[in-house]
TrEMBL record:
The chain crosses the membrane at residues 6-31. Its main location: nucleus. The lineage of its organism: Eukaryota, Viridiplantae, Streptophyta, Embryophyta, Tracheophyta. This is Probable U3 small nucleolar RNA-associated protein 11. Keywords: Membrane, Nucleus, rRNA processing, Transmembrane, Transmembrane helix. The keyword Cell cycle does not apply. Belongs to the UTP11 family.
Length: 149
């Protein structure tokens, strides 16, 4: 009984060794096959009867074009989704205080908000414009806080 078991074990070891040897040999030959330089595959040119249409689009050109198209498509999908979930009651004052010039947001200029006369009136303390009156009141209150008692 033990001799049959030892034969089975020996056969198993031999078969394992032969499988490993086969695997090593096969991988070596695969490496050799891949090491051989091959001629690069060239895609066909546009047939002469279709020359007037232009260059024939190659696969790599198609892949670049398709990726760009899908990227734009995905951007549009995200923007549509964002617009769908937008709160229609949301409001910021900056929405009215800016305008677009050539597609770029430009804030409203604060340079000439008050006229020269308004500035003189404000400086002398007799403001007529409502926003100037508020500003003057604020400045006077601030000045009272600063003055030493």
């Amino acid at each position: 009984m033990s001799s049959i078991a030892s034969l089975h074990a020996a056969f198993f070891i031999i078969s394992i060794n032969s499988l490993l040897h086969f695997h090593l040999v096969a991988s070596y030959f695969l490496f050799q096959r891949n090491a051989i330089s091959r001629r690069a595959h060239k895609e066909r040119a546009q047939p002469s009867s279709r020359k007037k249409i232009g260059l024939l689009e190659k696969h790599k050109d198609y892949v670049v074009r398709a990726k760009a198209f899908h990227k734009k498509e995905e951007t549009l999908r995200k923007l549509k989704e964002k617009a769908a979930f937008r709160n229609s009651y949301e409001f910021y004052f900056q929405m009215i205080k800016t305008r677009t010039v050539d597609g770029v947001h430009k804030p409203e200029s604060q340079a000439n908000k008050y006229t020269q006369e308004d500035m003189v009136d404000m400086f002398r303390g007799r403001a007529t414009h409502p926003s100037l009156k508020t500003r003057l009141k604020f400045e006077r209150g601030w000045a009272k806080k600063i003055k030493p008692v």
